[in-house]
Amino acid sequence: MELNSIVESLEDKSILVTGATGFLAKLFVEKLLRVQPNLKQLFLLIRASDYAAVTQRFHNEVIGKEVFRVLKKKHGVEFNSFISEKVTPVAGDVTLENLGINDSEMTKKLWSEVDFVANFAATTNFDERYDVAFDINTMGAKHVLEFSKKCVKLKLLLHISTAYVWGEKSGLLLENPLRKGETLNGTTSQKLDSQVEMKLVSQRLKELKAEQLPKKEETIAMKEFGLQRARLFGWPNTYVFTKAMGEMEIGELIESRNDLPVVILRPTIITSTFKEPFPGWIEGVRTIDSIILGAGKGKVKCFLARADVIMDLIPGDMVVNAAIVAMIGHANQPSDDRQQFIYQVGSSARAPLETTRLRNYVYNYFSKNPLISTSSIGKSNEKPIQVSYPFIFPTMASFLTFLYVTHMLPLKGLRLVNAVFCNYFRDNCNDAERKITFITKLVKLYEPYILFKGTFDDLNTERLRIAARGNAAEADTFYFDPKCINWDEYFMNTHIPGLVKYALKY
């Protein structure tokens, strides 16, 4: 692949971005506007019912965020007029056909003007309700592709997936497509079919409605149903299961239009920004961040880790740079070379990080920079939270044994004492139960990633890096080589400080 100027290639282009309120999409939008102010138009699809609602969400959840502070400083008092000229929020919903856009004039405008579609829409909640995850991650991918096919000027569809569509497989995991019907365990007699899954979701919802369950119990039941279906076919949770089916839908549908190039980007565990628009920006608590902040708050004093297991992390700005380079690179390829291209963007192959090092980062940082405990009584009672050096366990069995001996057995004793003293220690029991539930859920939820034994092949991504480096003038603008990351420096001075500053409120 030969790359001309990426910045020049973006000039006068119109791009439709779905999932525009998400962390990664905001980084994508900010980068495009910062490096190429002469974009023709960015259309941001935001879930909303009408113009007033979409405008409010756009200002509150996109432009109003800290990530745009560099751009605001660059444009000064002209920032709002610049955004008004270059960015159009669009009310819609990827779970619906035609992306749920009710404005017929806007639909025609998109079909006639859009050069690129970038699909960032997703729910990344590991234990999401099955109906919600299926509608967004699977059917959403299908609806975006179907809409894209109607865009007469379209040069490429960029779809953001996840490297963990490979489930819990071990060894070297290639940048290969997932074929419709494919399962990961190969032991079930059932063939994976998204249409069957759609019917099962509908049927299960009808059953739960008939039982007239409270909303909370219905949600729990749909989460359990999603987990059951995922594990049946070899995936560890509903999130990666529905993302895998989304890739399958795209793979099947692009066969009906071979001249439509599709890039599927599979990032690994996304972390805070490495450099741009400034180091350490993050939004929300993402994967391992729950463990980091839980430890900083004194709630997590042990977790799973093995010295021979690599934790695959990649900063969000590197993912966005890879996305832009891939998008422009393949849009400029000859039409007879167009097909589905897959890029796994991570660090395990080029800059491996052992999971056990996370313990040192957490302890060292919060020992020097302790969080302050909050108190309803007043600031006079607030004090630094003391952290202990976390225990690590190489298996789930060893962790659960430790939890039973150190937490569950004492809780049983406390319950007996509480019964004798007429519920005098009820609050203590409740606090202990909440702590056990929190730790157990956290560890079980992230076990497939903390003890993940695979390495993500990135030969395609490396070729993309080589092509990007070929344009020396822009090599530093669109960096995404994890070899430049010093993990000690990144965690201690960028990622954890960023979590404390931007994500702690979550």
What features would you describe in this structure?
With 506 residues, the chain is α/β, with parallel strands linked by helices. The protein has helices at residues 6-10, 23-35, 51-63, 69-75, 79-86, 104-113, 130-148, 194-210, 215-233, 238-253, 289-296, 316-331, 357-368, 396-420, 426-450, 459-470, 487-503; strands at 14-18, 41-47, 87-92, 116-119, 156-160, 171-173, 262-267, 269-271, 302-304, 313-315, 340-345, 391-393, 454-456. It has a 7-stranded parallel β-sheet with strand order 3-2-1-4-5-7-11, with helices on both faces. A two-stranded parallel ribbon has the order 6-13. Strands 8-10 form a two-stranded parallel ribbon. Helix 2 links the parallel strand 1 (14-18) and strand 2 (41-47). Helix 8 (194-210) runs antiparallel to helix 9 (215-233) and helix 9 (215-233) crosses helix 10. The longest helix is centred in the last third of the chain and has 25 residues, at 396-420. It starts with 5 loop residues before the first helix and ends with a helix. The mean pLDDT is 91.
Mean pLDDT: 91
User: Mind describing the biggest β-sheet?
Assistant: 7 strands, parallel
Helix content: 40-55%
Low-confidence stretches: none
- Strand composition percent: 5-15%
The whole-angstrom Rg is 24 Å
